[in-house]
Design a protein that fits this description.
Rossmann fold; two-stranded parallel sheet; 7 strands; disordered C terminus; Helicase, Ruva Protein, domain 3
Length: 368
């Protein structure tokens, strides 16, 4: 490591070599590439590549300092105890099955599918998409997350280019052609997270870009987002618009509501089981004991609760409380306390009441 007070001109060759070695090891262990590193520390990808190859003629000392500080942060984050482990829950399996249908299930051609939940879901869509991408590898899939700032054709095309590792220079037409040429004729699926953010675009142009890509290449797409997108696509544009959103809707099949099984007394499979919860939090610093797994399971299966995302926050906070008090495990009472501390009192009570109602309903259903 390079001391914080070190000036760039005082960085020694052996320190630079040490930073390069650490960075290469970090890349190999985490799958990070030069583009991500360059973006994180504010240098260009070409400079990072030359620096690692020992060919950069510029200010190697300053670059080594910037890279060293970034590595210190990233290594510290990587070393922290993990709260959760990815598990193929019913939600994740539903998303995987939908991706499989989009890619291979239709006899006629590949499709654009949509999986969605409420805005407060936190049910693991992103983790499931990343797991599917890891299984299919970059040869058969690309994963990208759409932010609000990506709700323009140019921004979306740049993300598409980066996802399949093609050059980003030139006009949008040139970028589109390079992306299309890269995937056309392949058994390939685009896994696009937070697709609902595209509804902020003017005249829905990014949506038409994606449907044009589908028409041009016949490669599958799986969109993941919130129910807001479904409501948005059901709206009609003004009469003077070039196209209707019906053109977009007609290309989307299947459309899967991930919360349907637990909404309004749904009779489908639970989103999460108690065993899922035990496995998800198996690597947490402290064990879940007693009724804690069931308590968290009820939260995960309660609509609009925040689901798994809320459970992670509760377990992290309960873990901190337990360690502070010298406890060796987390029980239901500690999770209850964490919930009441983390919410305004009336909201916490509403949540706990909702869990209690669902628990009693489940008992009655089992008895009948």
């Amino acid at each position: 490591m390079i001391a914080d007070s070190t000036d760039a001109k005082d960085v020694q060759p052996d320190q630079i070599a040490g930073v390069i070695a650490r960075a290469k090891a970090f890349k190999e262990s985490t799958g990070t590439n030069n583009r991500k590193i360059a973006k994180a520390i504010g240098w260009s990808t070409g400079v990072i590549s030359d620096f690692f190859a020992g060919k950069y003629p510029g200010d190697r000392g300053q670059l080594a300092i910037d890279l060293d500080r970034w590595l210190n942060t990233e290594e510290e984050l990587a070393a922290r105890p993990r709260t959760t482990t990815f598990v193929w829950t019913n939600v994740a399996m539903t998303i995987k099955a939908t991706a499989g249908y989009c890619l291979e299930g239709s006899r006629e051609k590949r499709t654009i599918g949509l999986v969605y939940g409420p805005e407060t879901a936190g049910i693991g869509k992103t983790l499931a998409l990343k797991a599917i991408h890891a299984e299919l590898t970059v040869r058969r899939s690309a994963f990208l997350t759409v932010e609000k700032v990506d709700a323009t054709p140019t921004a979306l095309l740049l993300k598409l280019c980066q996802a399949v590792n093609v050059e980003t220079w030139g006009s949008n037409a040139q970028r589109f052609k390079r992306v299309a040429d890269k995937v056309k004729g392949r058994s390939f699926i685009w896994l696009i997270d937070q697709i609902h953010n595209l509804r902020w675009a003017k005249q829905d142009k990014p949506f038409y870009l994606l449907t044009d890509l589908y028409d041009r290449t016949e490669t599958a797409q799986l969109w993941a987002g919130t129910a807001d997108l479904v409501a948005y696509l059901e709206q009609q544009q003004s009469r003077d618009a070039d196209e209707s959103r019906a053109q977009i809707r007609s290309r989307i099949f299947p459309r899967i509501d991930l919360m349907e099984a637990v909404r309004d007394g749904g009779s489908g499979e639970a989103l999460f089981t108690v065993e899922d919860i035990r496995r998800i939090f198996a690597k947490n610093q402290l064990r879940l004991v007693g009724g804690a797994p069931r308590f968290l399971c009820q939260i995960c299966n309660t609509p609009d609760s925040g689901a798994l995302r809320l459970c992670v926050h509760l377990v992290e906070y309960a873990t901190a409380l337990a360690i502070k008090r010298g406890l060796g495990s987390i029980d239901e009472r500690l999770l209850d306390e964490a919930m009441r501390a983390g919410f305004q009192p009336h909201r916490a009570q509403l949540m706990l009441d909702s869990i209690s109602v669902r628990e009693h309903a489940a008992v009655r259903a089992k008895a009948s």
